[in-house]
Structure formats: C-alpha cells, structure tokens
Sequence to fold (751 residues):
Amino acid sequence: MSRVVIAGIPALIASMLLLPGHANAAQCSAAATPAQQTAAIHALMMRMTTAEKLGQLNQLGAQGSATGPKKQRLVGEAEIAAGEVGSFLGVRGADQTRRLQEVAVTRSRLKIPLLFADDVIHGYRTTFPVPLAEAGSFDPDLAERTARIAAVEASASGIHWTFAPMVDIARDPRWGRVVEGSGEDPYLGSLMAAARVRGFQGRKLSAPDSLLATAKHFVGYGAAEGGRDYNIASMSPQTLYDVYLPPFNAAVKAGVGSVMASFNEVDGTPMHANGMLINGLLRKQWGWNGLVVSDYTGVMELLHHGVAANRGDAGERALRAGVDVDMVSEIYAKDLPQRVASGHLPLGIVDASVERVLVAKCRLGLFDDPYRGSDAARERASILTAEHRHAARDAAGRSIVLLKNAHDVLPLSKDIGKVAVIGPLADEPWAMLGNWPGDGKPEDAVTPLAALKKSLGEQRVAYARGTGLLGDDHSGFDAAIAAAKSSGVVLLFVGEGPEMSAEAASRSSLDLPGNQQALADALAATGKPVITILLNGRPLSVGKLADASSALVEAWFPGIEGGNAIGDVLFGDVNPAARLAITFPRTVGQVPIYYAHKNTGRPPSAGEKYTSKYIDVPWTPLYPFGYGLSYTAFSYGDLKISSTRIMANRRQKVSVTVTNTGMRAGDEVVQLYLRDEVASVTRPVRQLRGFRRIHLDVGESRVVEFELGRDDYAFHDAAMHDVVEPGRFDVFIGGSSEATLKGSFEVVSTR
Ligand code: BGC
Fold:
C-alpha cells in the first residue's frame, strides 16, 4: 500500500471531526470550506493504494451498452468494484448511471463515487443549433440559456461532466470541427466560451442541475495544417497567445472546472506532453487549479507522435505535463503502477492529479449524494419539456443568417399559393440535430417539410427530394422540376449531412457536394424564384448557388425545432439577424481567409499587379465575418468618441446612433472594430472589440455605447510581453466586419 504523508493533516482532521455534519472526515462535502475539503480529501488519499489512486485517473468508455435487465453485468462493473475506474465517458441515462454508481459506492473498498462524463455540446435531448450557428447569434445570453437547459437535462440523466464548450478558434473551414466552436474570432469566441461555462456550471457547481464544464481542446487544435483533422499546428507565439489562447483564458476566468488537452502538437510538442502550456501557463501563470482530461486515447497517441517509446513513457509524460485523467487509453491504470513502484514516477505527481479528481467530485456534491438526485422520474420531468422546445425554436431563429435577398423576395406572404419543397435535406431529421447531437433523437426533430406541411397544409406543399447529398444521381430532377413548375416558389434545402463535418470530417473542397448545384441550376432554369436554405456545418463556397437563388438562407444544423424556425424566418414571423461567425470563402484556394488578417507590405489593390492577391479570383471573401442581412434596414451615424487622447488604463467611451430605417421591427448586431495603426510588430487590419445585439422598432433610434480599455489595445510584442503601445487607433462601427463608419483616437500612455 502506498503512503502519503501530508504535513498538518492530523490537526485539520481532528478539527473537522469536531464539526457538525462531518462525522466522517473521509467524506468531502460540497458545503464545506475549501480547507475542510482539502483536509477530507487528503485523509481519503492516505487510505488509498497506488492502484486506487491511478484508478481515479482512469476514464473508461461506455464500450458496448450499459442497458439491459437489472441483473446483467454492466460494463466496467468489476473494475468499479476493484476501484480501478474513476470516471466514465458516454454512459447516460438515470437508470444506467445509478446502477454503476451503486457499484462504486457500495462495492468498492473506499466507496468513492464515479464521475459520468459525456459530450453535451449543443443540448442533450433538446438539441439546439450547433455552436458555430449559435455563435452567429452574437448573443452570449442565448448561449448561456441553451447551455443551462442542456445541463438541466443531462444532469437529470445522471451526467456530471460535459466535454464542452469547444473554444477552439477555427479559420480553416476544411477542418470539420469548425462546426463545434464559435468561429474565427477570439473576442466573440471568448464571450461565447464564458457564457457557455456559466450556463453549464450554473450558479453553484454542487447544485444537482449543474455540470462540470470543459474548455477544449487545449490548444491550437483549430490550426491543423491543411485543415486535416489531428494534424500538427505551427504558429508564432504571438498567434498562440493573441488568437488561440484567449477563449481558454475567458473560460478560466468564468470558473471552468476542467480543460481537455488537444490531439495536436504545437511546434513539435504534442499537447498531451506539453507541460509548459498545461502546468506552466494554464496552472501556474493563470492560477487555475481545475482538472485536465486527455482527449480520447490522447495519452496513448504520444507513441504515434513519436515522443514516447512505450506506454509507460507515454503515461509518464502526460501525467508529468499535468494531464490528470486518462480518457480510454488505460495507460495510467495499467502501465503507471510499475513506474511508481520503481520510484521512477514520484507518487507526489500522481497525488496532485488524484487530488484534483477528488476535488471535482467533492465540488459537484458527489460525496454528499452520489446520484445528485438523478432518477428516472426527474429525468422524465426534465427532458424535452415544452419550455425547452420553445427555447430551441427561439435559439434557431436567432441563429439563422440571411445571406442574400434579391428584390426582397423574403419574407414570403402566408397567402402564397403552392410551394415546392425540394432537396435532400428538406426532410432529413439528422440535419436538424447536426453532429454531436447528445441524446437527441431524430423522431423529436421537426424537419422543414413537416413544419411547412403543418403550417401551410399538405395540399399546398409539393415535395420532391431531387437528388441525394452525394453522387451524381439525376433521376429525381424531373419530379423536382415538375414540383417547381406547379408552384409559385421553390424552397430548396441543400448542404452537407451532419457526418460531413465535426470530428474526422475534413474536406478538401468547400463546394456543395454531389449533384446539388446541378439541381439548383435546373430549378433556377424553370424561372420560378428559388429560395435556397443551406443546412451545413462549415462555410461553403456557394457563389454559384447564390447566383442560382433569389434568396440564400444559412440555417446551419439548427436543432430539433429547426424546421419550425426556418418557417418562422421564411414567412417573416422572425426577422433574421444572425451573422456569420466565420468567413465564407469564394473558393477553397483562398483558405485561410479571415477578417483580422495582416495588411502585408503589399496590401491587395485592384490596379496593381505586384500586390497580395490572386490572379484567378478576387482576394475578398464571398461573405465576410459579421455579415448577415435583415428584412429591415439600419443606418449608423453620430459616432462619438469620449476622448481623442486617452491613457490605456482609462475607460474610453465610443457611441453611435443606430436607426431602423426599414419597414419592419428587427434586431441589429452593432459591431465595433479597432485598428492599431502603427506598432512594433504587425497588427491585424481590424479586430472586433465590442458588439451589441439590439432590437429596434420601425423608425426607432438608439444610442449604443461601447467601452474600451487596456485589454482592447494589448497584444504580445516580439519579446512576448503583453504590451500596449502608444499611438493612434481607428474605430470602425457597423453591421459587419466591413463596417465603414470610422473615427480615431490616440492612446497616449501604455498604462
Ligand atoms: C473528441 C473530443 C470528445 C471526446 C469524447 C474525442 O474524439 O476529440 O472532443 O470530447 O472524443 O467523446
């Protein structure tokens, strides 16, 4: 049996034994003070063998199924009873989690409760829009609300720990995982990260409806070379610190309980062995003391990266780097005991990680109630309620982006005669749920076809699939064309299947797959107005599709209420206001393309050959970051900057008057960008530094005020110092990253 000697423990334990409610010092209560919790955990650790300690760091997957008759042996049951497992991934449902937990708290020697982890990414049973879509709402409160509902549902189902939010900045849409995050911008990404952490974790982690959140994937995963998943990331330290790290920092400041290491290497060091960034930056520099979990077999993959000669090496490198929990590799549990026994791996390093696991369990209240009040009745009452469905419809409506609306063809009149509903995604429930659907079920999803049949009546809907998502099948074209000809308007639903984005779903082309463009062209040739609704998980190079369409609507994967929400937008019950959280390129050859690029020494210029551009395609995007149309129009004026010269540490106020000049009430996303004109290192041409989604009635004006401060001017210089340099800053305000209303001021002191 291993022994751990912790100075001062006996006195603390003794004092705890005197406290009411703490008769057993080994029980760590969420209600206790941090010092009492530490003492209880240390006392518990003194009773643990090395194997039991490493067991706490071992996370098993839900291989097979934990369902079935009560007496069936559940996956991992023997390991749980032997104290060899600390957490599970992907076991869900009140019944299953309760049964496994019961084994842990009744049959294991020390009765330490298990942690149940799952990927609750954009809803649990009530599926919300995919995160990239929701980021486009430019509404962090919405992200907080949907994360809260996800937590309420998942926790009722026995889950304690979600592997979300995904906060990777993503600037390469070939990478399928762009769908899981908040897009290309660190400012927007940081606000969304913090909002989701607050939503998942609630006001108190120990509340039975809170989930431990995980900021993932730490770090640089979005910079995968060539957009190929799991590939290496190479970047300047400035880019790492100013682009990829800020959302993690925001999550940490919001109190995130855990962080997941990423599969990639950064400049030669795989993140699962990157002690400099995990123990050094995240823990020491940022002062964060949460739990770091590996990604799926990430510890084992150190072998493939070529930085570990055997499993023991891999485990030791990961643990020493600060990766506390080994997801699924089973290296910590199986290969590290020998290393500890031989004295190669100091027990203190194991202990630090075990303590973090036990602290997480304690803070979640698992020692108080290992089931956290989860049972089948609560599960039934909490999941997929009418209120949650309503929130899903609202969230989808707030996340749909109007990309084109020629001659105000939208919104459609409800008196419109017959509509042709066409396309491979018009009636595909999985395209509502999207990838990482949680516990979402296709039978819960309302497809556009179902929604339109319900709202218009079956006889007013002519449906034809037209073609599949992939391949070159033309056989459905005739029926689709006939449906179009018999109708006043075509609603065309095209895009990608959910399996075409997210993990291991990189693409080398951003074109609409299969025969869908040909279908759009054939429908456009009928002369009927074609309203195209995209369902997809990444920016697509859809210039030709836009040309074939009178209107283009980006609905992403909108969640279970997607069909209804799309109907709300098409018929004007919802005035679309969401924006793109990621740039749409004209062609994959422009990638990476993002608004906050550098100017270069030869900024692109139409008349000058020797400038930074292409000879075969414009340098500009198809649709820029922050872009999105409305059924009304907004004007901007009266830009006011409180001080023309200001110290960095003083609050600068910038205001603008926004007016709804159109014929409908609507939301506008007012965006503020800054440009640092001259600095010691090159700076982006502009950076988002504020936004506000506001509602304006017809003719209404509002003064929107932003505050700027040191963080808005700061960057990392060549020596990697976090600096503000004095000089002129330009301010741009408007409804997209191409905002033109401009002012400027000078920062006169760096502090
Ligand atoms: C993904 C993670 C996810 C984990 C567990 C991995 O393959 O990269 O994002 O949380 O699986 O499902």
